[in-house]
Specification:
Blueprint (H helix, E strand, L loop, with lengths): L7 E8 L2 H11 L4 E4 L3 E5 L4 E7 L9 E6 L3 H10 L4 E8 L4 E7 L5 E7 L9
Parallel strand pairs: 1-4, 5-8
Antiparallel strand pairs: 1-5, 2-3, 3-4, 6-7, 7-8
Length: about 130
């Protein structure tokens, strides 16, 4: 089985201060806002690389980072990785709050990996 494609990469970080984080990354860093999901804001840092910040009141060290692979092939990735013995924390499912289709697993270091398809028509954002 061939490895499915990857379209973009997003690193999601949790913040207790989304307003201050927004101000810093938009006004100080000058990063363009790619997608505003209300409690999560995604910024373009390169052609296919993004940083996302999500409002959370409390976050543990391990749960404060999500490495996201954006693809239109979530089910293909799920099947590909299952065939290699990867255990998933969450099977592919639609998340209506963020209008995405995604699944979760952990890497050998305990980092949360998400394979996600943005169902929003505004993704991927224009350059």
């Amino acid at each position: 089985m061939d490895r499915p494609s990857i379209d973009q990469q997003v690193t999601f970080l949790y913040t207790r201060d989304l307003v201050g984080t927004t101000r810093f990354y938009e006004e100080v860093m000058g990063l363009p806002l790619a997608l505003d999901q209300g409690t999560c804001r995604i910024y373009r840092v390169s052609r296919d690389g993004y940083l996302g910040f999500c409002q959370r009141d409390a976050a543990s060290e391990q749960a404060s980072l999500i490495i996201t692979i954006a693809t239109r092939s979530v089910d293909d990735w799920y099947n590909y990785l299952c065939a290699q013995g990867v255990e998933f924390e969450k099977a592919p499912a639609r998340n209506a709050d963020y209008n995405i289709y995604h699944c979760f697993m952990r890497d050998p270091n305990g980092y949360l990996l998400e394979i996600q398809e943005f169902l929003d028509l505004a993704w991927p954002p224009a350059e």
